[in-house]
């Protein structure tokens, strides 16, 4: 129970392990997850530590597993999850077997991939050659048939000099394949480089071809280039090489082309068979690896974590014993001893491990035990700052106050039900949703806070009942306590009428639970009434919340034995808050109980009755301002009393004077007591204990120089001045800050009312079958606005404001948040973080 309200008591221990048993003992501690090791070799390079070779071997195994995983994912093979519990860390001798298995798999897979890539490249070449033989046959048919195209091409490539006699012209040609998107640039370059003395014909290959290196589908085109002379031939081949075009031999005679085409088709069929067998073999290897790869990852990561932890240890002079220092929770010492004993038995060692407690002046880490319910609230606290060691933990109180303050701003039975239903669904489907491992960051935020969302929804339903507000409408469950006593003609002739509580309009007993539903019909003064109600409720909740925070600071002072802080911090702070702001809250209750309706004396002019009627009710805000200014306004209503109770003016002046006297006590009290105790201890010849405790140093530390004393006192003065100013001014601003409860509640109610009046109300007023269609469309729009704006956006706004109220207004009264988190050596945490990094 202590760890719920305050962090666990931690102890620094020294651990002696025999070298042979160290691996097994650390493995057991990793399964336990309750030990945080310290690095005893901070000045030693990572590459010079004892177990660096083992860590490198684990890195190499992890690299091979990542390669296997990449190949498995590329083939779309499902990887089996680990059934049941995670496997234990294997023994060191099993590393050799794992390394051999991974080496064999990697080599086999690389060999298969290389063979498959070579076969695919060969297949690609044959496929391209097949397309070349098919497409170019058309070009040669035209050439042999003397088609006009060829004749014009021939004339273009023959010199125009009339003095030269030209015989039969024999054109050379090259054929190949090029990427389709390079054709335009390729054609322009040929034209410019060869000055128009070549003729290019190209045709697209309809089906995409697979690139053997990247496995991407690419579109290519077949081309054939006719030219005359060896010089142009050389130039054309260089251009083809520059554009990464692939050239293939193409026979000139049709018979040779047909013979080559038949040979190509035969080789393609053989290659298809071989490729199929290669892919089948690769698939079998990957399927076998996919069954165990998750298991292998866990084993390798555990081995690596163990050796990484062993690198934090020191070797004794005999090289036979490993020495470690670690933080452990005091309550778990026996559990850790049992784990060490199990590790020793597993290793077969005869020397038991030794775990000794150490005395230290170092601040221990902060460790709060949590479960799946409290962890989300604890993380809200850690987002502000990790608690100082053994400081009061705000998380248990936040479990109640956080959803309640949220609900005050979000109070609506309908919207709260939607939020609660979503939170309940996530809690009910918790295990299936966790198993899916959805990698969406937004979803993980919602799912991590599922219990917060559930409680916020439930509390919002409660405050919605208090406000009697469900989608901006009211529930008349118990029957209204108001009655209409106007006749029909009066109602028709007057647009704005009010029901008088000091008459028979009110039955003189309140609605049993929450706000009376009649206020939903009060168009004239509904907002005035709800403003007054919610504003006062916000101030009351805020003052009690801050007083509770100051009271928690007393718990801290008592635990840490800070006697001075109780006298010069807690008592002045609680007096300052109580005498000013708690008194203002008391005035609200006095006003509510003293002034009101006068049943049985409606309309009476009796002075005693008038004094307690609503007519004489004073303004609390004006009263509080006058109290701070030591003044009293002249009574403009002679039939009313000047004060709410006898002696009010004297009590208010006394309260303000005492509150103002608390300020110099908070400002100078602590430095004065520390300075006085330092002088007394200096006369006695040793260091002041109380002063050290106040300044965060441990008793028994060396006595600093006299100049150091002055500097410390100066720092205490500055520190105390900052905190005093922050508390005094913060008390005013923080009280006003709680008015956000009223403001956001009013905004949420008005937005819900606007959505109802502008959309759903018009849909409900429509008639006939067309009205049904219209209502269907309008309801869809209203539902979308309700969920997206009123639940999601308004919910996020209220959440952020609630977070601010807890961090600034509440926790600033007692929470230091200057600690550091306990980070135990835990396989579970290591494996989770590795899994998230992969995703």
Summarize the structure.
This protein has 839 residues and is an alpha+beta fold. It is 62% helix and 7% strand.
Summary tags:
transmembrane, 62% helix, flat, five-stranded antiparallel β-sheet, coiled coil, transmembrane helix, 7% strand, proton-transporting ATPase activity, rotational mechanism, 839 residues, V-type_ATPase_116kDa_su_euka, alpha+beta
What does this structure look like?
By secondary structure, this protein is an alpha+beta fold. It is built from 26 helices and eleven strands. The chain has helices at residues 2-5, 19-32, 52-74, 94-145, 148-157, 183-193, 230-242, 254-310, 333-347, 375-384, 395-410, 413-428, 430-436, 441-448, 450-467, 488-493, 526-559, 563-594, 607-611, 620-629, 648-684, 689-695, 706-737, 740-764, 768-810, 827-838; strands spanning 10-18, 36-37, 172-179, 199-204, 209-210, 217-218, 220-227, 246-248, 314-315, 321-329, 354-358. The strands form three sheets. Strands 1, 2, 9, 10 and 11 form a five-stranded antiparallel β-sheet that branches. The protein has a four-stranded antiparallel β-sheet with strand order 4-7-3-8, sandwiched between helices. A two-stranded antiparallel ribbon has the order 5-6. A hairpin with a 6-residue loop joins strand 5 and strand 6 (217-218). Helix 12 (413-428) packs antiparallel against helix 15 (450-467), helix 17 packs antiparallel against helix 24 (740-764) and helix 21 (648-684) packs across helix 22. The longest helix is centred in the middle third of the chain and has 57 residues, at 254-310. It is flat and about 130 Å long. Mean pLDDT is 86; it is low at 146-155, 162-168 and 687-711. The chain crosses the membrane at residues 404-428, 449-467, 537-558, 570-590, 650-669, 772-793. Keywords: Coiled coil, Hydrogen ion transport, Ion transport, Membrane, Transmembrane, Transmembrane helix, Transport. Essential component of the vacuolar proton pump (V-ATPase), a multimeric enzyme that catalyzes the translocation of protons across the membranes. Required for assembly and activity of the V-ATPase.
């Amino acid at each position: 129970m202590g760890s719920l309200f305050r962090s666990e008591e931690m102890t620094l221990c020294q651990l002696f392990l025999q070298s042979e048993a160290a691996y097994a003992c650390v493995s057991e501690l990793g399964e336990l997850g309750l030990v945080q090791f310290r690095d005893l070799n901070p000045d030693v390079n990572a590459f010079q530590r004892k177990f660096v070779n083992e860590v490198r071997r684990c890195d190499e195994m992890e690299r091979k597993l990542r390669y296997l995983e990449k190949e498995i994912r590329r083939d779309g093979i499902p990887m089996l999850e680990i059934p049941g519990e995670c496997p234990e860390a294997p023994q060191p001798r099993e590393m050799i077997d794992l390394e051999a298995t991974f080496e064999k798999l990697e080599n086999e897979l690389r060999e298969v991939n290389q063979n498959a890539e070579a076969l695919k490249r060969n297949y690609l070449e044959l496929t391209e050659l097949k397309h070349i033989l098919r497409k170019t046959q058309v070009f040669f048919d035209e050439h042999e048939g003397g088609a006009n195209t060829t004749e014009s091409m021939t004339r273009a490539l023959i010199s125009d000099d009339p003095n030269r006699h030209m015989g039969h012209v024999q054109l050379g040609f090259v054929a190949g394949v090029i990427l389709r998107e390079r054709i335009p640039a390729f054609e322009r370059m040929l034209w410019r480089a060869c000055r128009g003395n070549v003729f290019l014909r190209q045709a697209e290959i309809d089906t995409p071809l697979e690139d053997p290196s990247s496995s991407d589908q690419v579109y290519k085109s077949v081309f054939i280039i006719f030219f005359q002379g060896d010089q142009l031939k050389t130039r054309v081949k260089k251009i083809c090489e520059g554009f990464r075009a692939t050239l293939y031999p193409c026979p000139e005679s049709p018979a040779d082309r047909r013979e080559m085409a038949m040979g190509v088709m035969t080789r393609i069929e053989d290659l298809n068979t071989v490729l199929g067998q290669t892919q089948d073999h690769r698939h079998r290897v990957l399927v076998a690896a996919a069954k165990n790869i998750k298991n292998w990852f866990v084993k390798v990561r555990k081995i690596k974590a163990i050796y990484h932890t062993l690198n934090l240890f020191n070797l004794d002079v005999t090289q036979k014993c490993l020495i470690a220092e670690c933080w452990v929770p005091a309550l778990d010492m026996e559990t850790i001893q049992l784990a060490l004993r199990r590790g020793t038995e597993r290793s077969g060692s005869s020397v038991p491990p030794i775990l000794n407690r150490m005395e230290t002046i170092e601040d221990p880490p902060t460790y709060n035990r949590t479960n799946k319910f409290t962890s989300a609230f604890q993380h809200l606290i850690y987002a502000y700052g990790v608690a100082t060691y053994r400081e009061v933990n705000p998380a248990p109180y936040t479990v109640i106050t956080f959803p309640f303050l949220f609900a005050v701003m979000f109070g609506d039975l309908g919207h709260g039900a939607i939020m609660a239903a979503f939170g309940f669904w996530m809690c009910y489907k918790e295990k299936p949703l966790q198993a899916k491992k959805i990698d969406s960051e937004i979803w993980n935020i919602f799912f991590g806070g599922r219990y917060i969302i559930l409680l916020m929804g439930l509390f919002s339903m409660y405050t919605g009942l208090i406000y009697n507000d469900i989608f901006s409408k009211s529930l008349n469950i118990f029957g209204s306590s108001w009655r209409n006593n106007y006749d029909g003609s009066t109602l028709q002739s007057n647009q704005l009428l009010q029901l008088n509580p000091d008459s028979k309009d009110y039955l003189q007993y309140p609605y049993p639970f929450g706000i009376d539903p009649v206020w939903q019909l009060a168009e004239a003064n509904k907002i005035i009434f709800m403003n007054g109600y919610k504003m006062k409720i916000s101030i009351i909740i805020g003052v009690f919340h801050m007083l509770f925070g100051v009271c928690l600071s007393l718990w801290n002072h008592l635990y840490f034995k800070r006697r001075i802080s109780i006298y010069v911090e807690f008592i002045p702070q609680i007096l300052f808050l109580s005498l000013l702001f708690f008194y203002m809250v008391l005035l609200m209750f006095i006003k509510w109980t003293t002034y009101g309706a006068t049943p049985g004396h409606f309309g009476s002019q009796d002075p005693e009755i008038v004094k307690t009627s609503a007519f004489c009710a004073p303004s609390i805000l004006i009263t509080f301002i006058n109290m701070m200014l030591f003044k009293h306004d002249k009574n403009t209503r002679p039939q009313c009393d000047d004060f709410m109770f006898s002696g009010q003016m004297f009590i208010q002046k006394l309260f303000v004077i005492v509150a103002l006297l608390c300020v110099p006590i908070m400002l100078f009290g602590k430095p004065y007591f520390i300075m006085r105790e330092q002088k007394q201890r200096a006369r006695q010849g040793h260091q002041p204990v109380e002063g050290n405790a106040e300044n965060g140093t441990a008793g028994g530390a060396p006595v600093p120089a006299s100049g150091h004393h002055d500097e410390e006192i100066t720092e205490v003065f500055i520190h105390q001045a900052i905190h005093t100013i922050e508390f005094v001014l913060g008390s005013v601003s923080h009280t006003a800050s709680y008015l956000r409860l009223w403001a956001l509640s009013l905004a949420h109610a008005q937005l819900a009312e606007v959505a109802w009046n502008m959309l759903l109300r018009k849909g409900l007023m429509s008639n006939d079958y067309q009205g049904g269609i219209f209502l269907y469309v309008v309801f869809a729009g209203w539902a979308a606005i309700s969920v997206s704006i009123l639940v999601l956006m308004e919910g996020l706004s209220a959440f952020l404001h609630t977070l601010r109220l807890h961090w600034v207004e509440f926790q600033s009264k007692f929470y230091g948040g200057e600690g550091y988190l306990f980070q135990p050596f835990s396989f579970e945490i290591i494996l989770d973080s590795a899994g998230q990094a992969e995703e």
